[in-house]
Amino acid sequence: MRVPAFLRSSTTRFFALVFVIQLISGTALLMFVRHIIADELERTSRTLVTELHDDLVADYKQEGLSGLRRLISERLGSTPARDAAVLLDDPVGNQLAGNIADWPPIVPFDSGWQVVTLYRMGRDHPEPMGIIASKLPDGTHLLVGHVVEGDLRVRELTGEAMAAALLLAVPLALLGAIVATRVITGRVERIAETARRVGMGDLSLRVPHDAGMHDAFSDLAASINLMLGRIEALVAELRVVTDSLAHDLRSPLTRLSATVERALRETDDEAAISALERVGSEAGTLLAMLSTALQISRAEAGIGRDRFVATDIGQMIEDLAEVYGPLAEERGFLLSASGTAAGVVHRELIGQVIANLVDNALKYGRAGGTIALSARQDEGAVILSVTDDGPGIAEAQREEALRRFGRLDPARSASGAGLGLALAAAVARLHGGTITLGDNAPGLSVRLTLPQDTA
């Protein structure tokens, strides 16, 4: 049976660990206290019995049997000895003194400390006693004890109190686990939120932390901030390099195109005209590839989030359908647009992505088929899709199709550089969204899922 995802999460495991540790610690502490109390009660009772036994044996040695009998009567008659139990009998088992009628069969004549239940004379119920028994030199037997019923009751009450405390410890352990989990997850979430927003392109953010603290989270925050500073510097350098590269490469390509156009106007040679037209076409393709490749690089570096604006995406796809409608009709396609959606997006990049997808559908779709543009909102996300009736892309090749210059074999005979889907994927990531290639049965379905609000 598959375990639910929340039970496998590190947060749940940490919560369970803190709860179990606190519960085990509390239980161990309560058991230790109960053990200490029980030991102290038993030690006190044993000391009383041992002292009384030693006193009686000492008196026997000084005054003999008669003196011992007299002393037992005096001891049992005193108020402090109201919980005492004493039996002195002769070698054949006749009672000589004490408040126990007969020697208990379960007690050896010479035994150490033990707890038994006995009747004292004048009592109508048995009582638990801690006793010590010994055999005197003349063959008589001495049993000395102390009623421990109160001690047992204290131990019982202690056990009940411990059980009640343990029941109270459960919600306290739960509360402690919740507090500890919230503290830890709160600090982790702040780091994760900073990382998420940095990943979305806001490279100026840093993880908040107290520089005066030197715990693991502060060290982690400081290390992440150091890394983010380095990333921001590298991206700034990338922006400068890409802008310079675009300027440096576009200029000669533009001059090349202008030179080709001028040469076309100045020649009448058909062969030269054909060659110059091919050169001009390749120059235009190269210029478009350069622009798209630079856009992909900038999008993957998170550049462009400052140009996100609230956009009526439904109206945008209708405008694009109107622009491409005549071209689609000329090539035998039916181009449709439907749906309403709005979101905060990079308007120019989203428009270019949809235009590229429409251009791909016109190139590879089935003539006479339908190209459908749609936009809708679903649970805080904007879903854009472009579908056609062409051959589509096999599932095993879809990942390759999303890579830069990832042109599949059937497409290599057509013009293009294999950057359209790569740009769509980069733009989706820039918005914190995803791109999905699916089967339109027949044809290809390209779906972009973008957060409605990327703030």
Automatic annotation (TrEMBL):
<protein>
    <recommendedName>
        <fullName>histidine kinase</fullName>
        <ecNumber>2.7.13.3</ecNumber>
    </recommendedName>
</protein>
<keyword id="KW-0597">Phosphoprotein</keyword>
<dbReference type="InterPro" id="IPR003594">
    <property type="entry name" value="HATPase_dom"/>
</dbReference>
<dbReference type="InterPro" id="IPR003660">
    <property type="entry name" value="HAMP_dom"/>
</dbReference>
<keyword id="KW-0547">Nucleotide-binding</keyword>
<feature type="transmembrane region" description="Helical">
    <location>
        <begin position="161"/>
        <end position="180"/>
    </location>
</feature>
<dbReference type="InterPro" id="IPR050428">
    <property type="entry name" value="TCS_sensor_his_kinase"/>
</dbReference>
<keyword id="KW-0067">ATP-binding</keyword>
<dbReference type="Pfam" id="PF00512">
    <property type="entry name" value="HisKA"/>
</dbReference>
<keyword id="KW-0812">Transmembrane</keyword>
<keyword id="KW-0418">Kinase</keyword>
<dbReference type="InterPro" id="IPR003661">
    <property type="entry name" value="HisK_dim/P_dom"/>
</dbReference>
<dbReference type="InterPro" id="IPR004358">
    <property type="entry name" value="Sig_transdc_His_kin-like_C"/>
</dbReference>
<feature type="transmembrane region" description="Helical">
    <location>
        <begin position="12"/>
        <end position="33"/>
    </location>
</feature>
<dbReference type="Pfam" id="PF02518">
    <property type="entry name" value="HATPase_c"/>
</dbReference>
<dbReference type="GO" id="GO:0005524">
    <property type="term" value="F:ATP binding"/>
</dbReference>
<keyword id="KW-1133">Transmembrane helix</keyword>
<keyword id="KW-0902">Two-component regulatory system</keyword>
<dbReference type="InterPro" id="IPR036890">
    <property type="entry name" value="HATPase_C_sf"/>
</dbReference>
<feature type="domain" description="Histidine kinase">
    <location>
        <begin position="244"/>
        <end position="454"/>
    </location>
</feature>
<keyword id="KW-0472">Membrane</keyword>
<keyword id="KW-0808">Transferase</keyword>
<feature type="domain" description="HAMP">
    <location>
        <begin position="182"/>
        <end position="236"/>
    </location>
</feature>
<dbReference type="InterPro" id="IPR036097">
    <property type="entry name" value="HisK_dim/P_sf"/>
</dbReference>
<dbReference type="InterPro" id="IPR005467">
    <property type="entry name" value="His_kinase_dom"/>
</dbReference>
